[in-house]
């Protein structure tokens, strides 16, 4: 690893604009933004994916590798990534910092407490929760209906026992009521931090958070219980983007990490904009496959932040193709050309969808050791037949050098004039926006709304917030709302079971099926395999 | 503020041993300890106090000021302090970093997330909690009795609604059972971190934590559910002491901050030992008055860490004297010589107690603007009559220069040969240890144990852990277990309502009366007065 001061220098950042966290991590000062804000933007490349198999597609890996490959080609490039959440590191997932020759460093620290951003969000979230119950305890002057408090508590841990709880039991401990914890990445504050332009914007968004409803069923906002200024105090460092490096010394801005279901799943606007001022190319990613991640990246993040993407990379794997062709997870390493061809229907649909946004797409075939040559040849032929540029990416094994062909194709795509457009206009009704996404992106025949969802949509219209974009919460495995319908299903409807308003973040969440915002731990949690070795190094995370 | 690199240099610490957190905070590397561990120790000065009035006595202020005064006299001095907890900063207390000309900097960052130590402890605590419920969820192979889980959850927030809760409600969310949150400073992990010598010792202590009891009523320890290695991963940075500075540039090691009731209330052994190797004088403090703080500092921290204190400073205030003489809080600013004289009985008892530990004591009269000259003269005369050295301390207004007389008297006391001894031997029975503290320090006539306390003591004997020192949990306002019995009460008994074992920290907690380990917020929380100003500075914390 090079010192972060040196990495910063390579990105044109003077040491005075760094707030160091050890030798290899730094926050970027507010003054840096003032210095660079009038520069022209670099080109923004979105890394997205086909519907993944349960082990993932390698999107973060490809984002990191591609940024290295672009630098390898002499293009000044910065990767803009999400911060890993601690909870999943202790659960199934392990770390979220790439791997092999395409990873960001120091991996263990980034995966653990990093620069404290997520802890700060947890604290701000729970301060608001504590102040809500305290408001009721001390006489409830605002008239909050304790049965209609929608602001829950948060923790960056996978802890199913906290999903549904009863708080305030016992004498002197306030109102007894049902409540629950979500994982911090699902907190609206995480989404807010990632969509804010600066601290003033953050404050304004926090003010707008709806914490619950009063006895007249009118919304009560965070600003009404005087919690927001102290929340800003807790978040004033968390809002500054973090600088780290890849294993090859490419600068990486890593900042924020909202869920890709209940939220939009992209790293922060502040971090992305900073990167665009500092580099010719910025490679960023969005959570899940393109049906969720890319759509929300375009329709929420780009729309709200005024960003124009120049190209998209669709990460596919032979494994994911076979999974989408019906192969079960234990058999994914076995050659299966017919399943692969069948699964490719999934990729074709994503490619067509990206055209609807006017964004040129390149397919990255993320190489696995178990891929056979026949399979790779077949995938490349399928991409060509679909009219898509494709490149085999060996960044895991070879780092930047393993993604040169991909990088070349991406730069050519990005140099074409952009015709980026949104999928829908905001002034459509909520119902029409949801139906547009379902019909145009998922290719469903229609949407079934539950009475509860219809009632909430009505309420949002009444509150004058129906102009906000929609944030779909759906299984990542399928275009449909059923995880087992793989490939490119047709003739299905999507059920919207519930609608929620994230008034501070500025979007309307449409839940399809049930949504768990607090994961559990598996029978053998990843935590059981972690340890600190005799040299003080963390083993088991990367 | 000087850069922390410069402050470190003044303490003889090379930059290579610093892990910087911004320009003004650093963690000290493990290698530094290896380099200095064979040096002779400096002199250890404990700052303690009479029983405080509800606004506190100014112990932290005096600790900081005295360290500055000693440096002013040319004695190389480091202060060793506790880390503030975020929860109380949002509640009544505001910050905990001193004030006026005797404060540590950067106050806002130290009071907020600092270097993330407390967040790391929260995470480790809740990982263990999540793994307990997950263990039961996945078949409960160890046979944990869900009704006898003693490991609760933790949060660094004042949130009374979380004191008593029900977790695991709803299908798929595990065992429904009663639980609760404590504030993180009350976590046994905080006490463990503060008593550990190094990471290996930390691991061993975490292994010994009793998380609950099995169906045969045998203790189940953290090591039995494979949680400890991952907890060490989460704590590997938190165990390193932090370096900051006072407003006059005196180096301060600030590390750990356990409650002074359910735990021993002192900063970390690692930090204290490091400071003793780097300075000629180390000024440290212990929570609450000398009846709790000094006794536990001597009998738990010094005993376990092999530390020998050279002198104690008893902080008194004219206000606290009048409070102990029966004056109510609103009237504390009014001159009242008879109440002052009556309240001085409280100081006399503390001074006698310190003699029992063989530690020379100096009285520091922490000056307030409302003190009249007649009151100050009276206090000095009372100290002289009691045979105690005393000095007026004006460190709040004047910084180090305002405590020169105090510092001179402290150095003279510390140069006398030490005859430090513990109050009791560890091999006494639990009952005898508690009775010794009550009779010798509090001056009660005896102890009444509830049947529950007796049963637990019996169980601790059976588990072979009765040799551990006792950690008294008692109101700080009185020598008795009743907050309203001020001064120097006689003819009272102490009721021990409950006994708990902190097997990892290594002490037996005796609870007198009820103990709240999760504070609440007041009607107008301090959080409502905090804000970030236009220059990005936090207003309302110091």
Automatic annotation (TrEMBL), chains A, B:
<keyword id="KW-0067">ATP-binding</keyword>
<comment type="pathway">
    <text>One-carbon metabolism; tetrahydrofolate interconversion.</text>
</comment>
<keyword id="KW-0436">Ligase</keyword>
<keyword id="KW-0547">Nucleotide-binding</keyword>
<dbReference type="GO" id="GO:0035999">
    <property type="term" value="P:tetrahydrofolate interconversion"/>
</dbReference>
<dbReference type="Pfam" id="PF01268">
    <property type="entry name" value="FTHFS"/>
</dbReference>
<dbReference type="InterPro" id="IPR027417">
    <property type="entry name" value="P-loop_NTPase"/>
</dbReference>
<keyword id="KW-0554">One-carbon metabolism</keyword>
<comment type="similarity">
    <text>Belongs to the formate--tetrahydrofolate ligase family.</text>
</comment>
<dbReference type="InterPro" id="IPR000559">
    <property type="entry name" value="Formate_THF_ligase"/>
</dbReference>
<dbReference type="GO" id="GO:0005524">
    <property type="term" value="F:ATP binding"/>
</dbReference>
<dbReference type="GO" id="GO:0004329">
    <property type="term" value="F:formate-tetrahydrofolate ligase activity"/>
</dbReference>
<protein>
    <recommendedName>
        <fullName>Formate--tetrahydrofolate ligase</fullName>
        <ecNumber>6.3.4.3</ecNumber>
    </recommendedName>
</protein>
């Amino acid at each position: 690893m090079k010192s972060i001061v040196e990495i910063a220098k390579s990105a044109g950042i003077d040491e005075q604009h760094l707030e160091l966290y050890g030798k290899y991590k730094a926050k970027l000062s507010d003054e840096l933004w003032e210095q660079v804000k009038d520069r022209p933007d670099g080109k923004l490349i979105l890394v997205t994916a086909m519907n993944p198999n349960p082990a993932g597609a390698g999107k973060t890996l490809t984002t990191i590798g591609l940024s290295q490959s672009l630098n390898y080609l002499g293009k000044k490039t910065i990767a803009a990534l999400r911060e890993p959440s601690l909870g999943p590191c202790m659960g199934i997932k392990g770390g979220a910092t790439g791997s092999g020759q395409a990873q960001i460093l120091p991996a263990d620290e980034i995966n653990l407490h990093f620069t404290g951003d997520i802890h700060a969000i947890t604290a701000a979230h729970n301060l608001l929760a504590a102040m809500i119950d305290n408001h009721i305890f001390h006489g409830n002057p605002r008239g909050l209906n304790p049965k209609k408090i929608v602001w829950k508590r948060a923790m960056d841990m996978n802890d199913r026992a906290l999903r549904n709880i009863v708080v305030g039991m016992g004498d002197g401990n306030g109102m007894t009521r049902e409540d629950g914890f979500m994982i911090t990445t699902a907190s609206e504050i995480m989404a807010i931090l990632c969509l804010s332009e600066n601290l003033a914007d953050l404050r304004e968004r926090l003010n707008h958070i709806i914490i619950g409803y009063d006895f007249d069923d009118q919304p009560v906002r965070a600003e009404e219980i005087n919690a927001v200024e102290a929340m800003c105090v807790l978040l004033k460092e968390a809002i500054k983007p973090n600088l780290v490096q890849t294993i090859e010394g490419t600068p990486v801005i890593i900042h924020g990490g909202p869920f890709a279901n209940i939220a939009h799943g992209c790293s922060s606007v502040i971090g992305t904009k900073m990167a665009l001022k500092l580099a010719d190319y910025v490679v960023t990613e969005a959570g899940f496959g393109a049906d969720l991640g890319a759509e929300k990246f375009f329709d929420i993040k780009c729309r709200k932040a005024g960003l124009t993407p120049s190209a998209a990379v669709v990460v596919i794997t032979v494994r994911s193709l076979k999974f989408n062709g019906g192969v079960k997870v234990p058999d994914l390493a076995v050659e299966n050309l017919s399943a692969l061809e069948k699964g490719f229907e999934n990729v074709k649909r994503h490619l067509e969808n990206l055209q609807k946004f006017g964004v040129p797409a390149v397919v990255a075939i993320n190489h696995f050791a178990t891929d056979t040559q026949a399979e790779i040849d077949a995938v490349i032929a399928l991409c060509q037949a679909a009219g898509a540029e494709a490149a085999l990416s060996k960044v895991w094994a070879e780092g930047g050098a393993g993604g040169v062909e991909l990088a070349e194709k991406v730069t050519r795509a990005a140099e074409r004039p952009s015709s980026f457009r949104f999928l829908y206009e905001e002034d459509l009704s909520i119902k029409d926006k949801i139906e547009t996404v379902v019909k145009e992106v998922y290719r469903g025949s229609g949407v079934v709304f539950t009475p509860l969802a219809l009632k909430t949509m009505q309420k949002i219209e009444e509150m004058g917030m129906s102009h906000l974009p929609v944030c779909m919460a759906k299984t990542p495995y399928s275009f449909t709302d059923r995880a087992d319908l793989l490939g490119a299903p047709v003739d299905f409807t999507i059920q919207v079971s519930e609608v929620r308003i994230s008034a501070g973040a500025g979007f309307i969440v449409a839940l399809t099926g049930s949504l768990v915002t607090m994961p559990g731990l598996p029978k053998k949690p990843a935590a059981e395999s972690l340890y600190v070795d005799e040299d003080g190094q963390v083993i088991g995370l990367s």
